[in-house]
């Protein structure tokens, strides 16, 4: 071991073993009609924006949002408390709906929706506005006031978006809970938030079956004493029990309401929503986002990253239970006057081709999904893709985890027809919107890299002492200047907010991820800080080992973790799902050889566990913490045959998100 690497260990830097040199510039044709057309143009924009962020964001806020009253101060920053566009009054629902009604978008489709059983609905901006007004009036009739928390547990129907916008219209705070969570998880969140109203549906369609949402909510409400009313959407027609005095049908509530509900002028810093995420330790935290800054950031990042044009049909496959569904289903696209496809169900129902069938049917132009979905498509096989005409697509995106370069290549070739740029978007629930991503007309992609920061964003990579590291060394990823979409805190826990994000590295927002920059200034996310594997003093990132495995033709998915090792400190254990090979000792030996060849002896795994599926959080992230316990032998697994299905264990760890 060299002196240099010993030094790195002390300062917490991370070694990189990955070499990915392929470069994919956008076509001249794509760039020519893009919003930002060249690297030079991007650089100029980024430099201007970061030289004077307040002037930059202030001007955008004036141009892009409707103001009932103008703001007098762009940013009031008293670390870690940020106030953006101070003194101004606006309304997110107004910016998503009313602003379009006086333009030729008035009768444009806002949402083209398809249910899992194949039923369809289209809502124009005018129609969506009407539904939101009626629902907001319904909330008012139940006594909902500004600042009241409304808990939403619903399937991906237009009413989910209507409910969110209805809250925003009157200044109520929504807390959307993904409709796969348990009664316990709902109750925990309702109690933490002091929720006053619950919204749900009778049931939800999932792979042809009905998930009994109302039944789960009934159980949750037994333990949610602050909830006074429960609004129930009829979706599947399943029979439910309506509790007298508490439960009200959605249709009964809105049928009696007027179409007229003026948007409330709200202070810029009015809480728009809280969204629970558990992060790395235990108790879920309610990430709090506010009105003007979040709205501006969701809108602008949507336009920049997806290079949005009025004639596009945008499809983000995320559920509104996650931040991606907040920023790139609800608020970003609607503020920008986009037309979007919204799909209710599973990607493999009734068959594994459903997404491609939808792309062909509706002529989707921009498609945004998660690496976990892409790896599933690869595993399901190309025959499900090849049947369809995907030529309407012009741009693809990913979010949620790093994408292994080989999965990127498959996405590029099979879905993008080698024609569509791919935007690998790095961001977090906390950041409110995309922070790093190629601007597709301007920045050439490298498979596995989120490339460069968006305008106004200043990332820094630092070591344990807070010093910036050199190119090609990994360190902790921080953000050096506040941005409008940043979280404003953790609901009811100011101390945890300060502690978690603003203490370890002075003066900067700590993302909790590791990253490195390459010689071209491109950023590569290396995984969570807690997931680093330390082999003989070399600190390795999980994604690099995983990507080496996924580049083997027989590997569908891989997760790498460290386990205690007397000699090396830690040894690498990997969990692998295969495509159609026999998972045996010979394949294990071959995979070790493959990793040695791809990235070197240091990264060769000591243990290879074949598994039928990897345990995932509900949002699709690999549960490395659980795998770490399994690899170390501290998590009891019943059966030790070669093929395990650890996802059953994942289900026992309910709140891990
Ligand atoms: C964490 C945030 C952002 C919306 C969905 C997830 C990981 C996210 C990428 C990416 C590598 C990524 C990070 C981040 N992550 N996008 N493009 N490349 N890693 O939101 O649940 O708050 O998770 O997801 O580790 O910190 P979230």
Kindly state the percentage of residues in helix. 25-40%
The CATH H-level homologous superfamily of the domain at 89-346: ANL, N-terminal domain
How many distinct beta strands? 31
Mean pLDDT: 93
Report strand order across the widest sheet.
Answer: 12-11-8-6-7-14-15-23
Tertiary shape: globular
Q: Specify the CATH class of the domain at 89-346.
A: Alpha Beta
CATH architecture of the domain at 89-346: 3-Layer(aba) Sandwich
Would you write up a description of this structure?
- The protein has 657 residues and is of the alpha/beta class.
- Among the domains are: 89-346, ANL, N-terminal domain (Rossmann fold, 3-Layer(aba) Sandwich), CATH 3.40.50.12780; 531-656, 2-Layer Sandwich (GMP Synthetase, Chain A, domain 3).
- 33% of the residues lie in helices and 23% in strands.
- Helix 5 (92-101) packs across helix 7 (158-170), helix 6 (125-141) packs across helix 7 and helix 8 (183-193) packs across helix 9 (213-222).
- The site of 5'-O-[(S)-butoxy(hydroxy)phosphoryl]adenosine has 21 residues, from helix 12, strand 24 and strand 25.
- Residues 277, 322-324, 399-402, 424-429, 450, 511-513, 525, 528, 619 line the site of 5'-O-[(S)-butoxy(hydroxy)phosphoryl]adenosine.
Provide a compact summary of the structure.
This protein has 657 residues and is of the alpha/beta class.
Write the layout of secondary structure elements.
Layout: H1 3-11, H2 28-32, H3 39-51, H4 53-64, E1 73-78, E2 81-86, E3 89-90, H5 92-101, E4 109-114, E5 120-124, H6 125-141, E6 149-153, H7 158-170, E7 173-176, H8 183-193, E8 197-201, E9 204-206, E10 209-211, H9 213-222, E11 229-233, E12 247-249, H10 250-255, E13 266-267, E14 271-277, E15 285-290, H11 292-305, E16 313-316, H12 323-335, E17 339-343, H13 354-362, E18 366-369, H14 371-380, H15 383-386, E19 395-398, H16 405-415, E20 422-424, E21 459-462, E22 475-479, E23 489-490, H17 494-502, E24 509-517, E25 523-528, E26 533-535, E27 538-540, H18 542-550, E28 555-565, E29 569-578, H19 585-599, E30 607-613, H20 624-632, E31 644-645, H21 647-652
Bound molecules: 5'-O-[(S)-butoxy(hydroxy)phosphoryl]adenosine (WT7).
């Amino acid at each position: 071991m060299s002196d240099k690497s010993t030094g790195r260990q002390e300062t917490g830097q991370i070694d990189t073993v990955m070499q990915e040199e392929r470069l994919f510039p956008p076509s001249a044709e794509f760039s020519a009609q893009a919003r930002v057309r060249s690297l030079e143009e991007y650089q100029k924009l980024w430099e201007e924006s970061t030289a004077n962020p307040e002037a930059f964001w202030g001007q955008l806020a004036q141009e892009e949002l409707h103001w009932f009253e103008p703001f007098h101060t762009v940013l009031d920053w008293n670390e870690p408390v940020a106030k953006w566009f101070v003194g101004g009054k606006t309304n997110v629902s107004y910016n998503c709906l009313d602003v379009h009604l006086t333009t030729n978008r008035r009768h444009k489709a806002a949402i083209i929706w398809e249910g899992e059983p194949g039923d369809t609905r289209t809502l124009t901006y005018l129609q969506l506005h009407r539904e939101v007004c009626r629902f907001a009036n319904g909330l008012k009739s139940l006594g909902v006031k500004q600042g009241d928390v409304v808990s939403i547990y619903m399937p991906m129907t237009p009413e989910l978006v209507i409910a969110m916008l209805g809250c925003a219209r009157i200044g109520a705070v929504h807390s959307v809970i993904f409709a796969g969570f348990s009664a316990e998880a709902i109750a925990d969140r309702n109690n933490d938030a002091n929720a006053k109203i619950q919204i749900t549906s009778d049931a939800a369609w999932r792979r042809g079956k009905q998930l009994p949402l109302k039944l789960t909510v009934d159980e949750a409400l037994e333990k949610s004493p602050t909830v006074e009313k429960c609004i129930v959407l009829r979706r599947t027609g399943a029979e439910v029990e309506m509790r007298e005095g508490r439960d009200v049908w959605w249709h009964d509530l809105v049928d009696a309401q007027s179409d007229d509900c003026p948007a409330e002028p709200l202070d810029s810093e009015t809480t728009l929503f809280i969204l629970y995420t558990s992060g790395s330790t235990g108790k879920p935290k309610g990430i709090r986002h506010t009105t003007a800054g979040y709205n501006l950031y969701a809108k602008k990042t949507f336009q920049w990253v997806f290079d949005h044009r009025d004639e596009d049909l945008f499809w983000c496959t995320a559920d509104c239970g996650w931040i991606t569904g907040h920023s790139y289903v609800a608020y970003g696209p609607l503020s920008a006057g986009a037309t979007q496809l919204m799909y209710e169900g599973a990607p493999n129902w009734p068959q594994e081709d459903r997404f491609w069938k939808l792309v062909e049917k509706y002529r989707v132009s921009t498609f945004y999904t998660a690496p976990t979905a892409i790896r599933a498509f690869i595993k399901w096989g190309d025959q499900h893709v090849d049947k369809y005409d995907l030529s309407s697509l012009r741009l693809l995106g990913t979010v949620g985890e790093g994408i292994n370069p080989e999965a990127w290549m498959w996405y590029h070739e099979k879905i993008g027809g080698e024609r569509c740029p791919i935007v690998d978007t790095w961001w977090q629930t906390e950041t409110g919107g995309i922070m790093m991503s190629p601007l597709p007309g301007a920045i050439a992609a490298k498979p596995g890299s989120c490339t460069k920061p968006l305008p106004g964003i200043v990332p820094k990579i630092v070591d344990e002492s807070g010093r910036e590291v050199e190119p090609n060394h990994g360190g902790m990823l921080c953000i050096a200047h506040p941005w409008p979409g940043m979280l404003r805190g953790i609901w009811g826990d100011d101390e945890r907010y300060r502690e978690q994000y603003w203490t370890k590295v002075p003066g900067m927002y700590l993302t909790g991820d590791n990253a490195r920059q390459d010689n071209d200034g491109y950023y590569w996310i290396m995984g969570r800080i807690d997931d680093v594997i330390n082999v003989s003093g070399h600190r390795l990132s999980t994604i690099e080992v995983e990507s080496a495995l996924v580049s083997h033709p027989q590997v569908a998915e891989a997760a790498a973790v460290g386990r205690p090792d007397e000699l090396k400190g830690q040894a690498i254990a990997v969990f692998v799902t295969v495509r159609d090979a026999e998972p045996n000792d010979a394949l294990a030996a071959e995979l070790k050889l493959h990793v040695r060849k791809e990235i070197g002896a240091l990264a060769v795994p000591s243990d290879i566990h074949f598994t039928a599926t990897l345990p995932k959080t509900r949002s699709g992230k690999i549960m490395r913490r659980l795998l770490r316990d399994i690899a170390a032998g501290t998590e009891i697994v019943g059966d030790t045959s070669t093929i395990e299905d650890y996802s059953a264990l994942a289900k026992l760890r309910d709140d891990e998100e």
